Amino acid sequence: MSESVAIVGAGLIGRAWAMIFARAGWNVRLCDAASGIARAAVPLCAEGLDNLAAHGLCPDPAGAAGRIRAVDDLVACLDGAAFVQENGPERLDIKRALFDELDALTPDGVVIASSSSAIRCSLFTQDLPGRGRCLIGHPVNPPHLIPLVEISGAPWTAAEALARARTVYEQIGQVPITVIKEIEGFILNRLQGALLAEAFRLASEGYVTPQDLDRTVADGLGLRWSFMGPFETIELNAPGGIADYCARYTGFYKRLAADPASPAVYEAPATEAILAQWRAPADLPARMRRRDARLAALRAHKDTQRD
């Protein structure tokens, strides 16, 4: 018998989670605090599953879609759930109120995971009776195409809950990583933030156009990073591996680290300098569809290239 997952919040991220779980054979119940959102999400999930199937990423889209249903309230959503994935707004006050309800209504022993992208779990679970089963399961947008999930617990999150979450995410085809010590922004967004700050600095100060900076990542760093990370990259770039790389090449990186981009790169006049050179797409939804199609093709290619 298939297990059931409660997807709380049926926006973009919630819909993606619904597709992921349903594709893996789980029964999915969707709910949302806003009237009509969960029911409207069901056909959107079916459309998304068809798109995945077109790229070889969902063998039975109709069957998966049939496992997704909307329910009217949180009680119905959580009844009998074996796992809970929360996708509410990224606001601490809302997370606290929502997790109060989730902890009170979710069956005993069931993991409650939040899709929070930066808020630490300890900030909204400290006073909960069942805080030991609460954790972060942060996906990367769009989650049905990018498989990484960051698992981050609070100091009081039970080891069994962390293990259960990792097992579930692996079983549904995602790639979980564990954040060993709680930190704001977790891992991916901190890495992205370091790159983004330097990108803003370089483009706003006139060293490169925003377009050429994007090409530097898309046709340079990104090609390597699509199948190996920074540590493996530098290990392969020096005869003696990582230690040899650090001894040979890090003089510049040390100077760069001593003079990081300031928070002002995200404000005017830096942002104005970038926007003066940037042409926004005429059809943003079309560009998003292009992104998703290319991510799907890349994901399908990676699935054929396992080591």
Description:
Its EC number is 1.1.1.35. This protein is an alpha/beta fold. It has two domains: 4-179, NAD(P)-binding Rossmann-like Domain (Rossmann fold, 3-Layer(aba) Sandwich), CATH 3.40.50.720; 188-276, Orthogonal Bundle (N-(1-d-carboxylethyl)-l-norvaline Dehydrogenase, domain 2). Helices cover 50% and strands 12% of the residues. It has 14 helices and eight strands. It has helices at 12-23, 37-54, 61-66, 74-78, 92-105, 122-125, 159-171, 188-204, 210-225, 230-235, 241-249, 251-258, 270-275, 284-303, and strands spanning 4-8, 27-31, 68-70, 83-86, 112-114, 134-139, 148-153, 175-179. Strands 3-2-1-4-5-6-7-8 form an eight-stranded mixed beta sheet, with helices on both faces. Strand 4 (83-86), helix 5 (92-105) and strand 5 (112-114) form a beta-alpha-beta unit. Helix 1 (12-23) crosses helix 2 (37-54).
CATH class of the largest domain: Alpha Beta
What is the ordering of alpha helices and beta strands?
EHEHHEHEHEHEEHEHHHHHHH
Number of strands: 8
Strand order of the largest sheet: 3-2-1-4-5-6-7-8
Helix content estimate: 40-55%
Structural class: alpha/beta
Low-pLDDT runs of 5+ residues are: none
Mean pLDDT across residues: 97
CATH architecture of the largest domain: 3-Layer(aba) Sandwich
Radius of gyration: 21 Å
The CATH topology of the largest domain comes to Rossmann fold
Instruction: Tell me the strand percentage band.
Output: 5-15%
**CA-based shape:** globular
Number of domains: 2
Number of contiguous helices:
14
- Distance N to C terminus: 32 Å
CATH superfamily of the largest domain: NAD(P)-binding Rossmann-like Domain
How is the main sheet built?
8 strands, mixed
